[in-house]
Each structure stands twice: as structure tokens, then as C-alpha cells.
UniProtKB/TrEMBL annotation:
Keywords of this entry: Membrane, Transmembrane, Transmembrane helix
Keyword Membrane: yes
Transmembrane segments: 41-63
Lineage: Bacteria, Bacillati, Bacillota, Clostridia, Lachnospirales
Protein name per the record: Class IIb bacteriocin, lactobin A/cerein 7B family
Length: 64
């Protein structure tokens, strides 16, 4: 699979990267797949943070 330098920079740009992937690579299935991947990674990260926050809050209330 061909990896362009733009793909690496987009991956590092996170959310902006998925928008850029959709606009720069219209009709490119690989670009769309990368955009979906970035979006899924962002959602997974947010979900992970939410789980940690809930666990900490739960622990605090349990101690009291």
C-alpha cells in the first residue's frame, strides 16, 4: 500500500486530518478509510477518558 507523506502528517493532525483527508482525496477509498480510522481513534480516546473519569469519580464516592 502506497503511503504518502501527507498521510503521515494528517495522522498527526488528528481531527483536522480526517477533514483534510475527505477534501484532498475525494474519490480515494484509502483516504476515506483513513479519515474513518482517525474519527474512530478519536472516539475511542474520548471513550477511554470517560471510563477513567467515571472510575475515579466512583472511587472517590466509594471512599466517602
Amino acid at each position: 500500500m502506497y503511503e504518502s507523506p501527507e498521510m503521515y502528517s494528517l495522522a498527526q493532525d488528528g481531527q483536522r486530518g480526517s477533514v483534510a483527508a475527505n477534501t484532498n482525496w475525494v474519490g480515494n477509498a484509502e483516504g476515506v478509510a483513513n479519515a474513518i480510522g482517525y474519527a474512530n481513534a478519536a472516539v475511542a480516546t474520548l471513550a477511554g477518558v470517560a471510563v477513567v473519569v467515571l472510575a475515579v469519580v466512583g472511587a472517590v464516592f466509594t471512599v466517602k
